[in-house]
Amino acid sequence: MMKRVAVTRQLAGLMLLFILLSVAVTAQAREMLRLATTTSTYNSGLLDYLLPHFEAEHDITVHVISVGTGKALRLGQDGDVDLVMTHAPEAEARFVAGGYGIEPRSLMYNDFVIVGPQADPAGISKQDSVVEVFRAIAAERAIFVSRGDESGTHIKELELWQQAAVELPFAGYRAVGQGMGQVLSIADEMEGYTLTDRGTWLAMRARLDASLLFQGDELLFNPYQVILVNPARHLDVNHAMARKLSDWLVSEEGQALINSFKVEGEQLFFANQQP
Question: Is the pLDDT assigned to residue 7 strictly greater than 50?
Answer without folding.
Answer: no
